[in-house]
């Protein structure tokens, strides 16, 4: 890839990714503060300033490497916002709202990006393509981030929502999976499909669910904003 194309690709992918991840984490902090936990507030994390949330490796380097290596997926993360769920006024239910704040913010950002497509005719000609590509990538990244985080596996947001809403009989064993959550995800997303490929089977179930759900939500947002 020529140098100019590389710089362009980074500029239209990393910027939307940084914004999506930053707003996702900041939303957790804002809602946790609203419900009584000042942990993130005291550490200066209840802010939309990306410098407070960016992880040099997870937010910048990892997505750039995946992009430049033509990876079929783009992934990144920010510094997790610290939340002391026991400090919340109603720990179990408030935990649900704190967890939902991140994905909900991403859907709101995706909706704004989709609506902004209507403003492209007014953009300067020499920057219209760059703006359009940023908006398209912002739409995709935010929806993917929201859907992925709503998988019902702790420590993802969907796992914490499930723990907060399920009866104790189911919530307790699910919450005990949190230390192993990332290993479980790696197993489902990487190892299981690899084993399936060796056996001649398609075991890439989670990715298929994510692609289907992401596609439906993107089409719905385009429809709602008059772009379909």
Write a brief structural summary.
The chain has nine helices and no strands.
Features:
0% strand, 228 residues, globular, mainly alpha
What does this structure look like?
With 228 residues, this protein is mainly alpha-helical. It has one domain. It has 9 helices and no strands.
Number of helices: 9
Quaternary assembly: single chain
User: Could you tell me the strand content as a percent range?
Assistant: under 5%
Structural class: mainly alpha
Shape: globular
Largest sheet: none
Low-pLDDT segments, ≥5 res: none
Give the N-to-C terminal Cα separation.
33 Å
What is the tally of beta strands? 0
* Rg, Cα atoms, Å: 19 Å
Helix and strand element order: HHHHHHHHH
Q: Give the integer mean of the pLDDT values.
A: 86
Domain module tally: 1
Relative helix content? 55-70%
Question: Helix and strand layout, with pairings?
Answer:
Blueprint: H1 3-34, H2 39-42, H3 56-68, H4 91-116, H5 125-149, H6 157-165, H7 168-175, H8 181-199, H9 205-224
Helix pairs in contact: 1-3, 1-4, 1-5, 4-5, 4-6, 5-9, 6-7
């Amino acid at each position: 890839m020529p140098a100019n194309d590389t710089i362009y690709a980074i500029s239209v992918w990393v910027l939307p990714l940084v914004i999506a991840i930053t707003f996702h984490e900041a939303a957790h902090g804002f809602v946790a503060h609203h419900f009584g936990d000042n942990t993130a507030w005291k550490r200066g994390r209840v802010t939309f300033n990306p410098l407070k949330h960016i992880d040099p490796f997870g937010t910048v380097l990892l997505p750039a490497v995946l992009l430049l290596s033509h990876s079929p997926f783009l992934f990144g993360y920010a510094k997790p916002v610290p939340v002391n769920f026991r400090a919340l006024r109603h720990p179990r239910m408030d935990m649900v709202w704190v967890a939902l704040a991140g994905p909900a913010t991403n859907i709101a950002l995706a909706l704004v990006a989709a609506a902004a497509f209507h403003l492209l005719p007014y953009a300067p000609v020499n920057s219209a393509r760059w703006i359009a590509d940023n908006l398209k990538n912002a739409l995709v990244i935010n929806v993917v981030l929201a859907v992925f985080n709503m998988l019902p596996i702790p420590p993802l947001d969907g796992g914490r929502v499930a723990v907060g809403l399920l009866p104790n009989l189911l919530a307790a064993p699910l919450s005990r999976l949190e230390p192993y959550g990332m290993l479980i995800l790696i197993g489902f997303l990487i190892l299981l499909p690899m084993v399936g490929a060796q056996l001649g089977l398609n075991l890439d179930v989670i990715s298929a669910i994510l692609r289907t759900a992401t596609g439906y939500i993107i089409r719905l947002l385009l429809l709602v904003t008059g772009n379909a």
